């Protein structure tokens, strides 16, 4: 099994949750999301982020607004919809349960079998 592939798949599994969480803090520009995700070592490229943002918008979980920029074209800032907030709340519960379950398994000592 390829370790790098397993690591990528684990990160992809929580990407949607992380993106919604970042947006939940307030209006956010896509490049700011990329910077935060990269700093947290959740490797994402624009080619992954933008289709995911479009899918989340089409699902009614987020919306966006255009804001004029003094240094170029208008920028698209993303915001959560009420449905997005509810969905994020449910993901938060799932994350906490999953985190607890994984920690339970990982914390058990090997029986030397």
From TrEMBL:
SUPFAM superfamilies given in the database record: Winged helix' DNA-binding domain
Domain Transcription regulator PadR N-terminal: 19-89
Stored Pfam families: PadR
PANTHER family in alphabetical order: PADR-FAMILY TRANSCRIPTIONAL REGULATOR (PTHR33169), TRANSCRIPTIONAL REGULATOR RV3488 (PTHR33169:SF14)
Protein name: PadR family transcriptional regulator
